[in-house]
């Protein structure tokens, strides 16, 4: 690292004062992670989220997770009483691989905190928990059908037709995509009609309060997931960046809808991988004409209304699989490569954690060039890390702030810690 960078130490939640001040009155705060299986990313995002909710009035957390599963958590944390047994039991709803992303003790602790926070509040003021992702085509269709049959309204026919259209593909959206790849007939018209019918119904009806609006919103969102998932799986089969763009446009559309649901001036906290929340225009994604949520949020809401925080670490351990669908494992994360962003911070900080603000980094000319920045997905093989786990990034432009953790450790999935009560403290410094 040619010149020493301005950094700020952080060890406790109080050390986040600086980033809270920098966030100011921003409406959307994006909290990243450099892997989907690192304990400290979850606990520090929880610490930040709690402060944003308590001190700045943020109304909901939206995560890189499926809408139906997250909506079940959302309903549970807004109840007066704990009707779901325990948070760990509630999180068993996340049963699609990779289950550990949201089925873990760190999220269980967040769920319990959200319920305690919500309980004394009026229904309209209770903090929500929602999913932004697009994978849940079949589950979302099932949720729509249950909703319209219970309501007994005009969308029943459209929902049943869509359900029957997908039924031959054994609930496997990839099998559906392969089956329709070379024919003119697919189920696109059917899912679009379901969405149209639900939107017409919502326009015709008046809802007295947010909880009522939210139930209708949830059904419409499931229909939107079905529409965009149908597009996503067909695009994925074709390869290239098109499916990624469908997915992140869906995330942005969902975020916009959630902000509108909660009313003028509402504020959102987003939890997603750095590859989603760090502006794609300042990475090599731009060459492939790929966009992401961080870029779209800045473009649509205005950069002054969006604050993105990247996360990264130098070495430690992580939970991941060696292939898609493989058994989850605790894996070692080797020291970051010498010239990477993380490797350079480790050298400068001599093993300490640090908070960096992009507003203080922009005078450092060498940071205007791309730096290799580590990214670990749900599939990981450390022996091949240097060949595909570093995303060239202009860090001060990609993020508004960066939290560097020199040494991190693996998440605590419910699958491999079933009898454990969870980490003894929500915060990393309490363990």
UniProtKB/TrEMBL annotation:
Coiled-coil segments on the chain, per record: none
Stored Gene3D superfamilies: Biosynthetic Protein domain, EreA-like (biosynthetic domain), EreA-like, domain 2
Domain of life of the native organism: Bacteria
Protein name, entry field: Erythromycin esterase family protein
